[in-house]
Amino acid sequence: MSKICVIGTGYVGLVTGVCFADLGNEVHCLDINEKRITELNNGIMPIYEPGLEEIVERNVNAKRIFFTTDYEAALSQAEFAFIAVGTPSGVDGEADLQYVREAAEKIAEVVDHSIIIVNKSTVPVGTGDWAADIIRKKRGNDELEFSVVSNPEFLREGSAINDFMQPDRVVLGSFDHSAAEKVAKLYHSLRAPILITDLRTAEMIKYASNAFLATKISFINEIANICDELGADVREVADGMGLDKRIGRSFLDAGLGWGGSCFPKDVKALAHMAVLHNSQPQLLQAVMDINRNQRRRIVYKLRNVLDGSFSEKKIGVLGLSFKPNTDDMREAPATEIIYLLLNENAAVQAYDPQAMENAAAELPEITLCKDPYDTAKGVDALILATEWNEFKQLDFNRIFKLMRTPILVDGRNQWDSTRLREIGFTYIGIGQGNHNGNGGQS
Ligand code: UDX
User: Fold this and answer.
1) 74-78 CB contacts, 8 Å cutoff, 24+ apart
2) Ligand 1 proximal residues by C-beta, below 6 Å
3) Which of 127, 167, 351, 406 could be joined to 369 by an S-S link, Cβ 3.0–4.6 Å?
């Protein structure tokens, strides 16, 4: 059993803290946000994450996890201090490190025993050294015995607990190999491969992994756009590609592209690092351009079907979160599509199983509906933006009667186009060669 302090109680910090507690450690989760800490102490989660409430409750009851705003109390006995604070995008896409700086300075201020500082936040390559410098400067002559270990996270929202407990790999980077070995021991019971390298390489593994996954998605979206013109079906293209174990089927689902708090931020930050160091990120730039255009393309397709204009039209949107099983709307494709529609004087109504509270704050100009059928009422088109399970087997005969014009835009290629066309819908998919519904054949 180890004593761990986790600084930051967002997706990464809270999940990391509670999972380490579930493995038997004593974990003190620290945040500067008093409201969030009070809510956590009352069993209210700051984020929607399947299974999070139960695992937190179990570990609070077992007195393995504690939530506090008191740095001294949280760090006093800690052998490890995990930094898991946000690193939002700055103006040019560079990561904003103010919260990492504050955490490092606070550690320097209150810690008076040997400690291993583990950075879990996604930080530009070289930040590990920078954080160590901050601590040394803060301490001045009052030496502190510490090491910095980079331990990037690979958690996906909506499956974060599972991704922590069953990781494909654990990556650790440090100039102090024995410190990295000590952090490795925290993960041994997970029986996953543990790679120990240097600080900068570990930080780069995180960026390169996310950038590659984003590249896979932009690649299949570019193939989808070509399939539309050539009458091929990108879903089966992806199946055929994925059978090659060098390619793999995952992250080859064409659709509205990637959103969330990680891919957009990390790809931009990596491209920015490249430019800062005289390297041209041509591929990363194209990956971002394709992703942005994927949202615009679906609006373009729909406008063509709606006799070229959205004014006086009502559009329904199913799904507002950036992906299923989360309430997170950061960089969600739905948001950009809705802005584009509003900008062309469409009226928009929408529903999402989890993100309605966020939507009320972020999209005051739209009408929020109570379920998919309410969203279909009186609309000229219905767009599937997020592939929540409850949108996959809708009663389309009922939907057909509810809509003013039966146009379906399947932004995530989830629906059965043949069956929908038989009911009488105009169906628009992504990369299904669907000019005229029979694979683009004239
Ligand atoms: C991602 C990485 O997967 C994770 O390892 C990292 O730690 C954080 O960033 P996350 O952003 O939570 O996780 O979601 P992810 O499941 O990766 O999806 C990212 C985006 O890609 C979503 O908008 C999703 O809709 C989109 N996506 C995913 C596709 O468009 N097609 C796919 O085939 C897969």
Assistant:
1) 74/5, 74/7, 74/28, 74/29, 74/30, 75/5, 75/28, 75/30, 75/107, 75/110, 75/111, 75/115, 76/110, 77/3, 78/3, 78/4, 78/5, 78/28, 78/111, 78/115
2) 153-157, 210, 213, 217, 251-253, 255, 257-260, 262-263, 322-323
3) 351
Active-site positions read 262
Best CA proximity match to 388, nearest among 363, 357, 353, 421: 353
Delineate the domains of the chain, giving CATH numbers in brackets: 3-197 (3.40.50.720), 213-428 (3.40.50.720)
CB atoms within 10 A of CB 38: 12
User: Is residue 441 scored above 60 in pLDDT?
Assistant: no
- Output the residue whose Cα is nearest ligand 1's atom 20: 258
pLDDT tops 70 at residue 440: no
Locate the ligand 1 atom nearest the alpha carbon of residue 255 and give its number.
30
DSSP assignment of 194-213 equals EEEE-HHHHHHHHHHHHHHH
pLDDT by residue (tens digit) across 117-160?
999 988 888 888 888 999 999 988 888 899 999 999 999 999 99
**Cα angle: 38, vertex 44, 47; to 5 degrees:** 110
Q: What per-residue confidence (pLDDT) applies to 434?
A: 57
Q: Could you read off the pLDDT of 259-314 as tens digits, one per residue?
A: 999 999 999 999 999 999 999 999 999 999 999 999 999 999 999 999 899 999 99
Task: Identify the residue whose C-alpha is closest to ligand 1 atom 28.
Answer: 251
Give strand pairing partners of 174: none
Reduced DSSP (H G I as helix, E B as strand, rest coil) percent helix, strand, coil of the chain, to 5: 45, 15, 40
Q: What is the DSSP letter of 244?
A: S
> Looking at residues 78-97, what average pLDDT do you find?
90
Q: Is the pLDDT of residue 436 over 60?
A: no
For residue 332, the CA-to-ligand 1 centroid distance in Å is: 11
**Of all protein residues, whose CA lies closest to atom 9 belonging to ligand 1?**
262
144, burial (CB in 10 Å: exposed 0-12, middle 13-18, buried 19+): middle
Q: Which atom of ligand 1 is nearest to the CA of 387?
A: 25
